[in-house]
Design a protein that fits this description.
The chain has 617 residues and is α/β, with parallel strands linked by helices. The protein has three domains: 5-13 and 516-616, Golgi alpha-mannosidase II (Immunoglobulin-like, Sandwich), CATH 2.60.40.1180; 20-39 and 222-231 and 241-282 and 295-445 and 454-496, Alpha-Beta Barrel (TIM Barrel); 69-219, Sandwich (Jelly Rolls). The strands form six sheets. Strands 30-29-32-27-26-25-1-28-31 form a nine-stranded mixed sheet, covered by helices on one side. Strands 2, 13, 16, 17, 18, 19, 20, 21 and 22 form a nine-stranded parallel sheet that branches. It has a five-stranded antiparallel sheet with strand order 3-6-11-8-9, with no helix packed on it. The longest helix is centred in the middle third of the chain and has 17 residues, at 352-368.
Length: 617
């Protein structure tokens, strides 16, 4: 029985190069997406409360357990032997904790903690557990505090475990000089042990009342507030562009998320429902993009922001340090402009009102910043036929499993642009995509699996095939977010979904010239071929989405292959449902090898449920 053939042509599929921006990703204010990359170890650090999100995974999971609790710990003298049971009994001290609206440091509340006690040595106050620390890890502690305590009573911050009658301290700091005015107290802690459930306790060794706000505990190795492990993982992916947007943008006011973090008030995240700490805003996002070497794409609020606010936002990002908002950026430690090029007007917006707003925004931005690249939201016929000369991109979202029919729909949209758009140079930005978006039950689990990786590879093959028009694509999402993140984190650890490896491989191993490739009517394999301009390396990406190995003859007779060694990268699973986890991080991981071939046509067997990249030099 003849083996089906794949023939790679030396002829380019189109004149333009493949944009590295099609390997982009997406960040939004959604549940634990940003907190999963942010280095802060404390939750509800401003005492504004925890609010249950509208969507959680697993379905029905509760977010609203108390983060802060009172604690009391005895401090028995260790210089004598206990001669009776009374010597080992718990002290009769107690602490109360309430949210106080009178004179908070920032936001609506501060924590008011009152302590009473007996004659035995003790410490009491407020604490938070479930703090993950590593042995020798240096931590930066900070809090804002005021109080009424007796002369000589100090404040202790203890990292460790509370056993009631005593506190095992991994490290501690003592502060003096508490007054009735708000003051910043800071210091360093270093754990003597590794503990995923340590406790941070803030207390006094006598009677009194104190108020707390903006309490922070961050690893010293944070990168401008971001987790070092997350930064390194995402940088290795080489995402060309990262979009900051999402549904919460409808209500989000960017100017509330700039300036010193200790001065920012938390807010309810509409429409997702959770309370945002407001530690990450526009400035932190742009620093994140710099850290991972990605272009930022900022989605502008076209619903509840004014045009002046939009122009101010651009000034914050791109204005000189002498401008009004550029000076605020400079005070945040970034005097040079961020030079953001890509700006999308609105998220998932359509209709006549949006189109009027889009035109107003685009014209005002163009008049002041003619070099910026502007993206509209959904591609309505009115935008394509009458308004597309106002923007550079239109941006459909692609939340569906890849099928050939859907690729043909994308081709039809491209043809409509070429034939009928007012702007014949209009490009497509697929600013959100995945195999699903709004399925919030247990079906979200598939986002973690080999199925999602296979679907992503087929989608990226499509973007390469249509790369003369599709110039930007942002997979949704980057981290956690009810399984959709390619990076998954908990308080102390990190792992990668199978899709992470696919995105990383396409961005780093495939080329920037799309080549023609013929495979007949192959219904079990999905192909794309590319060539890298800088060294001529050719890459064939093949997705076997069937449950059987597929044997193919590969014809490279048209290619000027000088080296008979072929580099092979393979990600394969035993089924669609294969999944990595914190307990089994390497269930699905890529394998690399080098294979020697001797002719211009060779046979290769593509494993079941696999993504394979064959590279010829």
């Amino acid at each position: 029985m003849p083996v089906p053939k794949i023939k790679i042509s030396s002829e380019a599929l189109y004149d333009d190069t493949i944009s590295p921006l099609i390997y982009g990703d997406f960040i939004e204010l959604l549940n634990d997406l940003i907190p999963g990359m942010w280095a802060e170890k404390l939750q509800d650090r401003c005492f504004e409360g925890i609010v249950q999100p509208n969507q959680t995974y697993p379905p029905g999971y509760s977010w609203v357990y108390p983060r802060w609790n009172t604690f009391v710990s005895g401090r028995p003298s260790s210089d004598r032997w206990f001669s009776s049971h009374e010597d080992t009994e718990m002290v009769k001290a107690n602490a109360t904790f309430e949210l106080d609206t009178d004179n908070p440091f920032v936001g609506k509340h501060s924590a008011k903690v009152s302590v009473q006690g007996d004659a035995k040595p003790f410490i009491a106050g407020i604490s938070q557990n479930r703090i993950a620390v590593k042995k020798g890890q240096s931590l930066n502690f900070e809090m804002y505090m005021r109080g009424k305590v007796a002369a000589g009573v100090s404040v202790k911050v203890i990292l460790g475990r509370n056993y009631g009658v005593f506190f095992r301290a991994y490290d501690e700091i003592e502060f003096n000089g508490l007054t009735e005015d708000w003051q910043r107290f800071s210091g360093k802690l270093a754990s003597k042990v590794t503990d995923d459930n340590a406790e941070i306790a803030i207390g006094i060794k006598g009677e009194g009342t104190f108020w707390l706000d903006k309490v922070s505990l961050m690893p010293e190795d944070n990168r401008f507030g971001w987790r070092a492990d997350a930064i390194e993982a995402i940088k290795a992916m080489n995402p060309g562009i990262i979009r900051f947007g999402g549904s919460s943008l409808i209500f989000y006011q960017w100017q509330n998320g700039i300036g010193p973090r200790e001065k920012r008030a938390p807010f309810i995240n509409h429409p997702w429902g959770n309370m945002e700490e407001n530690d990450v805003g526009l400035h932190e996002f742009l620093q994140f993009c710099e850290l991972v070497n990605a272009e930022p794409l900022i989605c502008l609020n076209s619903n509840s922001a004014t045009l002046d606010q939009i122009l101010d936002e651009i000034e914050y990002c791109n204005g000189s340090a002498e401008s009004k908002y550029g000076s605020i950026r400079a005070e945040m430690g970034h005097p040079s402009p961020f030079n953001v090029k890509y700006w999308q007007i609105g998220n998932e917006q359509s209709g006549e009102e949006y189109e009027r707003t889009m035109v107003d925004y685009a014209r005002a931005i163009r008049s002041k910043h003619p070099d910026l690249i502007l993206l509209a939201s959904y591609p309505s016929d009115n935008i394509l036929f009458n308004l597309s000369d106002e923007v550079d991109y239109v941006c459909p979202h692609f939340y569906a499993p890849y099928t050939l029919e859907r690729e043909n729909d994308m081709r039809s949209l491209i043809e409509k642009i070429r034939q009928n758009a007012k702007n014949k140079e209009l490009k497509l930005g697929i600013t959100e995509w995945n195999h699903t978006a709004g399925h919030w039950g247990w079906g979200r689990s598939w986002l973690l699996t080999m199925y999602n990786a296979l679907n992503a590879a087929r989608t990226l093959n499509m973007y390469q095939r249509l790369g003369d028009t599709i110039r930007i694509a942002n997979r949704s999402n980057m981290t956690n977010s009810c399984c959709s993140g390619v990076v998954q984190t908990n308080r102390s650890d990190i792992y990668f979904t199978p899709c992470y490896y696919v995105q990383k491989a396409y961005a780093n191993l495939t080329g920037d010239i799309a080549l023609k490739v013929s495979a007949g009517s192959d219904e079990t394999l999905d192909f794309s071929a590319t060539q890298r301009r800088r060294d001529g390396e050719i890459a064939l990406t093949a997705v076997n989405y069937s449950g059987e190995p597929q044997d193919r003859e590969i014809d490279i007779s048209e290619l000027n292959v000088s080296n008979r060694l072929m580099k092979v990268w393979t990600l394969a699973g035993s089924s669609y449902k294969d999944v990595n986890s914190l307990q089994d991080k390497e269930c699905v991981t890529p394998k690399e090898s080098i294979v020697e071939f001797k002719r211009n046509a060779m046979r290769y067997e593509f494993p079941a449920y696999s993504v394979t990249i064959l590279r010829f030099n």
